[in-house]
Design brief:
Layout lengths: L1 H7 L7 H17 L12 H13 L4 H8 L11 H8 L1 H14 L6 H15 L3 H16 L6 H21 L3 H15 L1 H35 L6 E6 L2 H10 L11 E7 L2 H14 L8 E2 L12 E6 L5 E8 H9 L2 H4 L12 H4 L7 H4 L14 H9 L4 H9 L2 E5 L5 E5 L4 H8 L1 H5 L1 E6 L2 E3 L11 E5 L16 H13 L2
Parallel strand pairs: 2-5
Antiparallel strand pairs: 1-2, 3-4, 4-5, 6-7, 8-9, 8-10
Helix pairs in contact: 1-3, 2-4, 3-4, 3-8, 4-6, 4-8, 5-6, 6-8, 8-9, 8-10, 9-10, 10-11, 11-12, 18-19
Length: 495
């Protein structure tokens, strides 16, 4: 019971129903994995437990945690999906089955890397929670990689570094991507790892002491300016992240200014800009190193103010200033939004994420409010269109909030489109000139109509001709705002 408490204690305000679900999944998985061992010799259930715990630490819902505890029982315990559905409901069964299917995708080296990525992205489009469970599963597998047969270690580590890490980063879950990077690093690049580790250790001892003293100075300066509601801590750059910087700086660690950084976490955005002004009023900033990621977020949604300042004793320190919400999102990314309780009385405003999830559990999702107040930074552009009430706002919302499909160019590039998109949408997604001159289309090697709807995983080849041009009829057969915009523009300018 102590182990189950570890998971339950990580959940915010769990109901009795939540506790019962997790306890049932815990006991069910424990029994089904009872006589199984891992390479390390430990009980196989330890892996299921750690996966569930990783999900709880990501603030995932009890449904997802239960699916994490059960994620291997189809593949490794031979339990039918119908039994899981009978015991835990359709949603848990769907998630467990999704993780099982995803687990069958194996990295086959450089030649097969693109095909693995294709399958992976198609799987992502089915349900984002499946990916989060798989990432939690992979995290524990990487922590125990030493026990895996030697010839398999490099393959698993490469797969982690080249497939799982980029996906975790794109979803904004830096807490996971950083851990996975550092766990894979020594297996994929052993010599570079040792070299980076040695350089970092020499620098760390010196920097940690200076950073701690500087942190005290910052606290005093903020208190003097009547700012008392804040948290400060500092982070040291991970080995793999440092390695990537060293490659750009010819392995000269003295040229890297953000190995360590002081973080200041505040309640409101206005507080962030106020604190930046106070710091620059006391310490001189390094020109060209002031970054406003609040006004201009990174592509994965990361927001903060960054500045590098001269401390006055010959040292440089990077300072990151962000709100509590920004810090939460920078660590947990989309996972911080996916956590909602499947209850009738839920007040979470996650209708945008609900649209990315399957419709299999209609009763659970139908009670979620349908406004768009709480959304992540990486869809801010859509909010701006909505607030401006421009003519295309409904089209843009439709593009994003409708369930997505992932289709591919013949070269293997992934094109993300709304469901029911046609080859015309695909052509305009690649380039407006290709869309304007589309003449024919092959889907999975076969000629098809330009008006035919595309499906998840289709490989689409566009044939163009300078003689062809957009037709007004195309507007009835496209789904994306980009395609409609370009067609209308062409028709207006060429008539």
């Amino acid at each position: 019971m102590e182990r189950i408490k570890e998971i339950i204690n990580l959940i915010k305000d769990p109901s009795e129903e939540d506790k019962k679900l997790i306890l049932k999944a815990f006991q069910f998985a424990q029994k089904k994995h009872e006589n199984q061992k891992r390479f390390s010799g430990e009980p196989y259930f330890n892996h299921a437990f750690e996966t569930g715990k990783n999900l709880a630490e990501l603030n995932m819902s009890p449904t997802v945690i239960a699916a994490g505890l059960l994620h291997d029982i189809i593949e490794d315990a031979g339990i039918e999906e119908s039994i899981i559905e009978k015991e835990f409901g359709k949603e848990v069964a769907f998630l467990v089955n999704g993780v099982t299917k995803l687990g069958r995708i194996k990295y086959q080296g450089a030649k097969r890397h693109r095909e693995s990525l294709r399958k992976f992205f198609v799987a992502v489009s089915q349900d984002i929670r499946v990916i989060i469970i798989k990432l939690a599963d992979r995290l524990h597998n990487m922590k125990t990689l030493d026990y895996v047969l030697k010839h398999k270690r490099e393959r698993i580590a490469k797969e982690t570094l080249e497939i799982y890490v980029p996906v975790a980063y794109r979803l904004g879950i830096r807490k996971l991507s950083r851990q996975l990077e550092d766990l894979a690093f020594p297996y994929v690049y052993p010599q570079e790892y040792e070299k980076t580790k040695k350089l970092a250790k020499e620098k760390d001892k010196e920097d940690a002491k200076k950073l701690k003293n500087f942190q005290k100075s910052v606290k005093k300066a903020l208190a003097k300016n009547n700012i008392i509601n804040f948290i400060t801590d500092y982070r040291i750059k991970t080995y793999y992240s440092l390695y990537k910087k060293l490659l750009k700086k010819d392995w000269n660690i003295e040229k890297i200014y953000d190995i360590s950084a002081l973080r200041i976490i505040l309640p409101e955005i206005s507080d962030c800009y106020n604190v930046l002004g106070i710091i620059h009023g006391i310490w001189r900033p390094l020109p060209g190193r002031i970054k406003d990621y609040i006004a201009f977020p990174k592509p994965n949604g990361y927001q903060a103010l960054h500045t590098t300042i001269f401390t006055g004793d010959g040292n440089l320190v990077e300072i990151q200033i962000k709100t509590t919400k920004m810090h939460q999102e920078s660590e947990f990314g989309i996972a911080s939004h996916v956590f909602y309780k499947e209850k009738k009385k839920t007040t979470a405003n996650f209708s945008w994420i609900r649209r990315l999830l399957p419709l299999g559990s209609k009763d659970s999702f139908s009670k979620i409010k349908t406004d768009f107040e709480d959304i992540p930074g990486w869809i801010k552009e859509l909010v701006e269109y909505q607030e401006k009430k421009e003519d295309t706002s409904e089209e843009l919302k439709s593009d994003f909030f409708k369930k997505r499909i992932f289709v591919f160019t013949p070269k293997g590039d992934v094109i993300d489109l709304p469901i029911d998109s046609t080859p015309i949408d695909f052509a305009y997604a690649i380039h407006s000139d290709i869309g304007d001159h589309i003449a024919a289309c092959k889907v999975n090697g076969k000629m098809t109509s330009l008006e035919e709807g595309l499906s998840n995983g289709d490989i689409v080849e566009i044939v163009t001709s300078k003689k062809n041009k957009p037709s007004p009829k195309w507007l009835d057969h496209v789904r994306t705002a980009a395609a409609k915009k370009h067609i209308r523009s062409y028709l207006q300018n060429n008539n």
